[in-house]
Records
---
Amino acid sequence: MKIGELAKESGLSVHTLRYYEKQDLLLATARSESNYRLYDQQALGTARFIRRSREIGFSLEEVAVFLSIRADKPAHVCAEAKTLAENKIVDVEQKISELKQVLSALHKLSDACCGGNESAEHCSIIDALEQSDQEAS
């Protein structure tokens, strides 16, 4: 199948597939007489594997490790994949904590603002953001 069909079947864009190919995550299995890249069912499986891995937040570097494990399962242990997943859990939990702090700060800003039709000359949100900028200077 050509790259357009691979894109359709995998749910990835042609641009993304070409990028993954440049990153050595995906390989064309052959070239047509017209020099088009050709892909087989294994490449489709790999593209779908990459898409699912990216959808749940794994980086391309982590995906590359998963692909190396997938390519030679007998040479690897399950703990390698589990370690990647556990590290990703820690990263996501940290991001959630940071986002909760941002959400709390936004609520404080919003709650302090009257939200009325008065002039913004005394808007508490603008004032608070200006103070933060002045404190950084």
Note: The first strand starts at residue 30 and ends at 31.
---
Amino acid sequence: MSKNLVESVDFYFDKDGFMVLTEKYHLDKGYCCGHGCRHCPFEYESVPEPKKSEMLLQKQTTR
């Protein structure tokens, strides 16, 4: 994936100034990197336990 990132399409900055990658960015990338990204569309499949289960539970309760 070697393209220039577009703000508000591929990423945005949250209220604390952190760059957050969007779901579109992750879908274009095509896999879970295992870092527990906020908008991971892959159900955190590469995140090790117990962090994976914690993140999935948190995702369900915020919907």
Note: The helical segments are 23-29, 51-61.
---
Amino acid sequence: MVATILLFLFIGQVLSFYFIILLYTKLSKLKDVEKSQSRLKDEMDNAIGVYLAEMRDENDRLIKELTMMNKKYEKEENVNDGKEHKDYIKTTFNMPRNMVAKAYQNSPNSTVAATTTENEPAADKEKTNSTTASLTVEQQIQELYRNGKDIEEIAKLMQKGKTEIELLLKFQH
């Protein structure tokens, strides 16, 4: 009788050790997943921070370029009337996209974009314009990347930030 009770206690103790080990392994796996999720969150925070910093720098550069264009316009027109000047400022910041693209190409950091778009043959430009018109921005970026363009060229062609292009290519499905 005592032997059977001891046998049951021994079996119960072995089973409890087995379950403790099983719970410990599950807990360690959960901690590993938590660490990897924390690392991914930190990487995403850093990537978004870099993206926002680059976007702020590009916006500052664009505003500076538009201000320079505004000053150049003032010198050409010699407008003394404040009302016309205010109207010009309103239209400067509500310019069509091609004017903003010209201002962006005039900036010193965009010499690559100006040379690449000027060196492309006209047939290639028409071909890419007709094919990219029906695609979304993400699809256009992916297509340009598959065609061998590097991220900086794609950013200049699409008038987007390099980090934005990198993020779109990184998170493509």
Note: The chain is about 85% helix and 0% strand.
---
Amino acid sequence: MTPDQFKAWRKQLGMKQKEAAERLGLKKRMIQYYETGERDGKKVKIPKSVRLACYALAMGVADYDGESAVFEDGETRGEPQSETPPRPALVEVS
């Protein structure tokens, strides 16, 4: 995600920098760095976690608790997982 793409994402969702910072759990200053692509003259890369959070917000996800997603409309989607995930089958190699 480039700085221009990041800024376009924010504007497409109709958010000001302060709101984007709040929704992403960041300081407003970081939003400014991501949009300019630099901090103190050095390049700033948008971390994968922020890029994924941008995608989730664009898809309407407001929160995620590890099992299900809460959407902007208040709806919750996702199935609770069993306490112990199934183990993959072992494959015998000859």
Note: The beta strands are 38-39, 42-43, 61-64, 69-71, 76-77.
